[in-house]
Design brief:
This protein has helices at residues 23-32, 75-81, 94-98, 100-110, 134-144, 159-177, and strands at 10-17, 44-53, 56-65, 84-90, 116-122, 147-150. With 193 residues, it is of the alpha/beta class. Strand 5, helix 5 (134-144) and strand 6 (147-150) form a beta-alpha-beta unit. The chain is globular and about 55 Å long.
């Protein structure tokens, strides 16, 4: 479905999740195609990327948030302003999966009606040490009414697909909420009597 010209092509996406689930790695893999095993806790950072989706050039601002609980209060305002939210957990860390309910509640308290949410299970490349089954994650996402995708920032598995899926969902929602476009009519004259 094509977006009319009056729909914005600027997007703000925020990644939230527990510490060490790979939020920064997902962003770096998507924006500059790099991956690092080094863990450096994030307080907050912003990256940008332009991408073509549905034949439209989209400008995406990506906000990386702290996974440490003492910084969670900063996220409320970011969630309110975001067009899209990726809730990220690690498939190798059951604790990060158990935090999803609390994270989703924070999103629900602060989300705008026009925003979209995607559940992301990261570290797919480490499937042999998986602690959260695909079926458990899928069932949880279905229960919350969210789409679910598994990614690997290390090898790039489904990274682009996750961002494109979220941007397309935002486009669709913007299209649903857009006022009807005025159509040009032939040059007719109006008479006042």
């Amino acid at each position: 479905m094509a977006c009319p010209a009056n729909i914005s092509d600027d997007y703000q996406v925020i990644l939230i999740g527990a510490a060490s689930v790979g939020k920064t790695c997902i962003i770096k893999k998507w924006t500059i195609n790099e991956f690092s095993d080094e863990y450096i806790p994030t307080k907050y950072s912003t990256d940008h990327k332009e991408i073509e989706v549905r034949s439209r050039k989209c400008k995406v601002e990506i906000l990386d948030t702290a996974g440490l609980s003492q910084y969670w209060g900063m996220r409320d305002n970011m969630i309110r302003q975001a067009d899209g939210i990726m809730i990220v957990f690690s498939i190798t860390d059951e604790g990060s999966f158990e935090m999803l309910k609390e994270l989703h509640q924070q999103v629900e308290r602060n989300i705008s009606e026009s925003s979209c949410v995607l559940l992301v299970g990261n570290k797919h490349d480490l499937s042999e040490t998986r602690k959260v089954t695909y079926d458990s994650a899928w069932s949880f996402s279905e229960h919350l009414g969210l789409d679910y995708i598994e990614t690997s920032a290390r090898v790039g598995h489904n990274i682009v697909e996750a961002f494109v899926h979220l941007i397309e969902a935002i486009m669709d929602k913007r299209l649903q909420n857009a006022p009807p476009q005025r159509t040009q009519t032939k040059n007719t004259k109006c008479r006042v009597m």
